Amino acid sequence: MGEHGNGDPKSGAVITAGEGESGKYALENPGLPPHRPRLADVDEKAAKRAERQVSVLFLISIIGTVVFFIGYFVVGVTEGDLQLLRLQNTLLGLGSAFAMLGIGLGVVHWAKTLMPDHEVVEDRKPLRAEADREEAQKILTEVVDETQIARRPLLRNTLIGAALLAPLPAVIMFRDLDRSENFGVERMRHTIWEEGVRLVRDPTGTPIRAADLTIGSAMHVIPENLREIQSHGQRLSEKAKSVVLLMRMNPADFKQVSPGREDWTYEGIIACSKVCTHVGCPVALYERHTHHLLCPCHQSTFDASQEFKVVFGPAGRPLPQLPITVDEEGFLVARSDFVEPVGPTYWERGNA
């Protein structure tokens, strides 16, 4: 290959753009196209008109939210009154639609008519530690100037009003999904696990003997008293927060046993809540060699050998551990309920 010069870039076998005779094949950088100013860029009356249009769209969003509130709080629906029910659904639907549509179209129209649309090329340069703060301040100032919020108070005030009100319909509707008296963190503070309740397989309801579990095995279990709940909806709700992952390890593999938890396991058998402490996804993947539990939603990883401590991912606290033992017949039973709330971590939740 080297004998014929094919590997030598100067042999002439390869045409190199921009050098010698081959320069005629090179393409020059065409640069940016000339900027065409919009009407609002050169005519302040047009800019004012665009500002009013954007503000009207934000006002439509505010009105839509008010219509939603009227339908939700003012229109009272009695059982069997289909007319009022249709009216309420219409107000709720139109109100939430206009609340979202108004603020969305307003932001789009604002960007198209008032925010700068010229293209900018910025050379990459190394950051200097002493200039970081000044550079960040300059960027923030430029962003505020480009939005024109400072000099267009009508636009700013209507945007703030729409942005504050628009999310409220969604918050209210989600809150209204549960009308029970103990809504909130108290609902997750307690489950139907209690002392003496057997751990059974799901869905067969078969009790589990400690002798039947081998080292490295893991299974999904539920409380035996779940079958006593007659209401299908309540049974599903209780099951969702009571599901447990049961596994057996070599007792020598436990790296951490906190004071007071010495009797929470039985001959290497350990149990924890399956509800991830991040956003409540089911933790279902167990790696027997590392003793890690993985949540498939956001990859939070918990270590069963360290009382389900978080070793990776966004979860903020360990999986709650269920204290277990065996009864007189050798079946696995709970010592008590979880000692802390199960499920995602909220700002209003404590550990007690």
Automatic annotation (TrEMBL):
Residues 241-333 form the Rieske domain. Keywords: 2Fe-2S, Cell membrane, Disulfide bond, Electron transport, Iron, Iron-sulfur, Membrane, Metal-binding, Oxidoreductase, Respiratory chain, Transmembrane, Transmembrane helix, Transport. Its main location: membrane. It is a multi-pass membrane protein. It is found in: Cell membrane. PANTHER family: CYTOCHROME B-C1 COMPLEX SUBUNIT RIESKE, MITOCHONDRIAL (PTHR10134). Iron-sulfur subunit of the cytochrome bc1 complex, an essential component of the respiratory electron transport chain required for ATP synthesis. The bc1 complex catalyzes the oxidation of menaquinol and the reduction of cytochrome c in the respiratory chain. The bc1 complex operates through a Q-cycle mechanism that couples electron transfer to generation of the proton gradient that drives ATP synthesis. This is Cytochrome bc1 complex Rieske iron-sulfur subunit. It comes from Nesterenkonia rhizosphaerae.
